[in-house]
Amino acid sequence: xxxxxxxxxxxxxxxxxxxxxxxxxxxxxxxxxxxxxxxxxxxxxxxxxxxxxxxxxxxxxxxxxxxxxxxxxxxxxxxxxxxxxxxxxxxxxxxxxxxxxxxxxxxxxxxxxxxxxxxxxxxxxxxxxxxxxxxxxxxxxxxxxxxxxxxxxxxxxxxxxxxxxxxxxxxxxxxxxxxxxxxxxxxxxxxxxxxxxxxxxxxxxxxxxxxxxxxxxxxxxxxxxxxxxxxxxxxxxxxxxxxxxxxxxxxxxxxxxxxxxxxxxxxxxxxxxxxxxxxxxxxxxxxxxxxxxxxxxxxxxxxxxxxxxxxxxxxxxxxxxxxxxxxxxxxxxxxxxxxxxxxxxxxxxxxxxxxxxxxxxxxxxxxxxxxxxxxxxxxxxxxxxxxxxxxxxxxxxxxxxxxxxxxxxxxxxxxxxxxxxxxxxxxxxxxxxxxxxxxxxxxxxxxxxxxxxxxxxxxxxxxxxxxxxxxxxxxxxxxxxxxxxxxxxxxxxxxxxxxxxxxxxxxxxxx
Length: 511
What we know:
One of its GO terms (molecular function) is ATP binding. It catalyses: L-cysteine + L-glutamate + ATP = gamma-L-glutamyl-L-cysteine + ADP + phosphate + H(+). InterPro entries: GCL_bact_plant, GCS2, Gln_synth/guanido_kin_cat_dom, Glut_cys_lig_pln_type. It is found in: Plastid, Chloroplast. With 511 residues, the chain is an alpha+beta fold. The protein contains 19 helices and 17 strands. The longest helix is centred in the middle third of the chain and has 21 residues, at 251-271. It is globular, with a radius of gyration of 22 Å.
């Protein structure tokens, strides 16, 4: 049905198609003898820098896991090449690819619908830790999270409760992890009169009604955000998302997945649009959360047009990240305010607030977490365009992206489909989809037509994985079939049986 791709030229005619199944298992470990330029010119195998990292005192970090604040001490000063090799070390053979899902949700008092206070959050965290054997994460005297194996629970600035899931092999495992987490949270929260809401933007309360979490990095961000955009505080205190973290086998594979992810991120935004309310009324958007990112801090957000340049690779992303102003450095269990300062200066020991201090690899890893484009590169790729939602959609989001990006044929089809999309067209989609969803015009059709084609590719990709995972796409399939986003369904209820009262959304989207 979709005719919006006329004139698309297959990407395989222009760049190398990487078959990750054929990647050699004999992995090179002599990167220390290569300059960053020569690394770029070598055959893009899944290069492993483990031996090199150990020789420099680096700790191995598992892909698709949340960043650590543990110290990593280098035996010698870091260089730009080290930062490139850090990203490159995320390459892994296809059999080692995993799925890491993260989701945020709003906690609220069931009787009053008011946001949870920190004291209630601390009680909840302590209760989960004691009842279900999680380790507590402390910042000073404050409990700020939990860890159990490769899972972690953390707090966003306004108390949004986040699960960062373990890297898992199948979507069945991912959904089981989500279900187990929600069971544990509800078991403790219900006894406290606390519920959790699956939505992309706080539907009722003002920023001044949201409690501030006692985390040093958020205080720094809260002071800096108003200097660089008008909606940064809304992003911090009133948004929730669901995202999936996925692996790549080579630099070329990373590039292809990055480009496909960026091109289709507005499509995911439309499919999962679920934030139509603000302070008790419709806000004019289907995904207010997505719109907020358009004026949060343009130095660290957006669609990254340079990813589509022929020269793009790990080096170019490092240069981009080095140009993103810093937020903080973590030293002696405290956050040092470095907002607006340069990581390039930090590499040279010229950071004004820490004169002579040199960064560790951990500082670089933390800096990468302060960059917020629609797709983010660390030692894996993060798909970041979707609103938070009810639990079935928490399983649908990773299913959508795994079906597209972990199947070679589906990935190539997406690249062929989107090859001739211009930067201006991608930016147009990014800006209009939050307001118009699947009804956003594109060329001679609508975003709904793109979504129909992409959903079929996602389903085909999942079928070929052989794990019987296609059922996780049912939530998305219904949105595509009807052309009605979750946000539009909420608006129908708001103007209909809810009598223009937003309060019923807390029951409608209760976990």
